[in-house]
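LAB NOTEBOOK - FOLDING QUEUE
OPERATOR: T.R.
BATCH SIZE: 2
PURPOSE: Compare the predicted structure-token outputs for two unrelated chains run back to back under identical settings.
PRIORITY: normal
REVIEWER: second-year student, initials M.K.

ITEM 1
FIELD SEQUENCE / FIELD STRUCTURE:
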Amino acid sequence: MTSTLRLALAALVTATLAACASAPAAQPDLTPPPRPRVDAKTQLEYGTPPAPPPGRY
């Protein structure tokens, strides 16, 4: 009886560890942050901001 209980407990621990190990990793957020807004003082000092660069594709 004791060996059956130990075997069942070992199977439960193994199943728990396998469930934790197989959890999918969190996907990183790859969206670029928004461009900062240009205030009136910066526009007067540096002119209008340059156009955004063209996309990669």
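ITEM 2
FIELD SEQUENCE / FIELD STRUCTURE:
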Amino acid sequence: MSSTASGKNGTWRNWGGNVTVRPAREVVPASVDELAAAVRQAAEDGLKVKAVGSGHSFTAIAATDGVSVRPQLLTGIRNIDRKAMTVTVEAGTPLKRLNVALAREGLSLTNMGDIMEQTVSGATSTGTHGTGRESASLAAQIRELELVTADGSVLTCSEKENPEVFAAARVGLGALGIVTAITFAVEPVFLLTAREEPMPLDRVLAEFDQLRTENEHFEFYWFPHTGNTNTKRNNRSAGPPQPMGQLAGWFEDEFLSNGVFHAAQLLGRAVPAVVPTVARISSTALSARSYTDIPYKVFTSPRRVRFVEMEYAVPREALVGTLRELKAMVDRSGLRVNFPVEVRTAPADDIALSTASARDSAYIAVHMFRGTPYQAYFTAAERIFTAHEGRPHWGKVHTRDADYFAGVYPRFGEFTALRDRLDPDRLFQNDYLRRVLGP
């Protein structure tokens, strides 16, 4: 499935359906040289350039009325280095294809997010992450990357080569150049045992530190209008593999989480008054289950119900207080929230604009079904998140600007100075980057 919904007359629409744009032209380069030539040509023609992946960002980060670069021919594995335990992959490769290819080679990424539709460069450039006690975001697993800069030259960046670019470009927002290849650290494929079970929200919040420290990967979903959550604990296992039965997997993931969930969303959108009742039923429909499988089959799940999302990273120690404030706000607001709130964690990393840059973080993601008014809920949630110095996910809905980011990212100035050096004429600029990075 291609998530990029390209509409009629050359219009481009993102997965969430909330961003539509018509570029002056689209290019589909078949090589790095072709891409570099397209960048130089755009500069000559006075057009801005943006690369677009699978369109999974809810922000307009990939939107342009200039030249839209589609990476679908820049895909596949370039090289596997078993001595260094790295894999080099073309930037347009979807995570789904990378995960399957690595598994075939007996390899795996250490950690990943829960959606596999994005391209590797789109996912890393926006700071996509899963949940982890020690293991961090996708971008933190990068060991080297290749970047086409504004003058059409190709830079290789790592801790040894162009280290200051490497420090920023792993989560580069598309502002420093176009990523053409990424080298990830990998490890021999391993097994994870997943334990999913309902748990009262009060208990999860009371025991949050313990649940986080006792499990390699802990996350939970809270159902607004209820005191219920569904928790997920993923830990490494010696085996044997015990994949989810096909029928059980189909029932939970396709029927309950996508099919019935979709019907419930349609009902809630049409008749908002039923949302709290539906939430109570939904939050008790999922039963406890456990299964053991290779990482990507445990970390990721299909997402067929379209939604719009806002997610903020707050300091980890602020998580419990922030979530209690969010619950109190929903309870007294009269809002009808038809989608669970997802909570995950990540350790601090050393990437300039990573949402976990230099601080242990907890992520709170709020969602609304596509086509449902979300502004009132997101505005109220964002007010709570920003009071805790929250950092929004670069690919999800938010209203923050460069002044705000300069206050919550200690290395913000380092990033913008590097951008001034690599793209002085703002070839890779668009409205979104103008807002979040400044003119």
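REVIEWER COMMENT (ITEM 2): The chain has 14 helices and 21 strands.
FOLLOW-UP: none requested
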